[in-house]
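Researcher: I'd like a candidate sequence for this fold, 247 residues long. If you have to choose between options at a position, lean toward the conservative one.
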């Protein structure tokens, strides 16, 4: 399989803001190949001046695993240019969706799964803006992995001391109206499990979680379409809130 050609197709779709058919429609490939494509995509971004800033987890709900026919989470990589401030520009996205997140701040280099929880320097409520590069937001497992797990933008609120996050109530509002409510328990039963999986998968790929990196533990609710000129607020019980306005 031509990893370079697959990465070029996805990279062009991102830069042209153009939805494409699933890659597997014409060139079926497996999960290891998908991660090789993902890695090349990230290497292209870093070659253009972006810096790695963390890891995002996907398929962290049992229902999604069953739907996709998998028994493990997937992951993607974040860069500094994916971090949104108080305003998020959606003009470079194809069909953005947003979901509430639990976010971990890594305080020191993580060399083993056993030490990842003790390496957490802070926790926060956050959001992730997803944007599949595929038509109609439809894909197979290898397709979505190759597409960097649909990563687009992310943000988070104020950092808090590490704590038990196994059942944090989350509310996401769009223009003052509730859009989603849920609990962090939807993230593998406890987002700490997702954090450990992030360390396991990163180490398995030859990466270490670095100081200053963040881990987006996964969605606590389904993602919803995100329009322009919208104001979004995500609130987590005991974690405050984060807000973003789209343009």
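Model: Candidate sequence:
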């Amino acid at each position: 399989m031509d990893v370079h050609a697959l990465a070029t197709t996805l990279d062009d779709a991102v830069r042209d803001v153009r939805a494409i058919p699933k890659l597997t429609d014409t060139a079926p490939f497996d999960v290891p190949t998908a991660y090789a494509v993902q890695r090349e995509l990230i290497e292209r971004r870093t070659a253009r001046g972006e810096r790695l800033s963390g890891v995002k987890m996907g398929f962290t709900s049992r229902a999604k695993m069953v739907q996709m026919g998998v028994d493990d989470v997937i992951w993607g990589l974040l860069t500094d240019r994916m971090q949104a401030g108080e305003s998020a520009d959606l003009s470079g996205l194809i069909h953005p969706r947003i979901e509430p997140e639990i976010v971990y701040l890594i305080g020191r280099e993580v060399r083993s799964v056993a030490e990842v929880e003790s390496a957490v320097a802070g926790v926060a409520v956050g959001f992730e803006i997803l944007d599949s590069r595929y038509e109609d937001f439809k894909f197979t497992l290898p397709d979505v992995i190759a597409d960097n797990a649909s990563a687009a933008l992310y943000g988070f609120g104020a950092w808090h001391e590490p704590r038990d996050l196994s059942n944090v109530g989350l509310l996401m509002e769009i223009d003052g109206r509730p859009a989603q409510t849920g609990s962090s328990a939807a993230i593998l039963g406890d987002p700490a499990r997702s954090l450990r999986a992030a360390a396991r998968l990163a180490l398995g790929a030859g990466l270490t979680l670095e100081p200053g990196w963040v881990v987006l533990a996964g969605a606590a609710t389904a993602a919803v379409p995100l329009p322009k000129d919208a104001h979004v607020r995500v609130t987590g019980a005991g974690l405050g809130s984060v807000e973003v306005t789209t343009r």
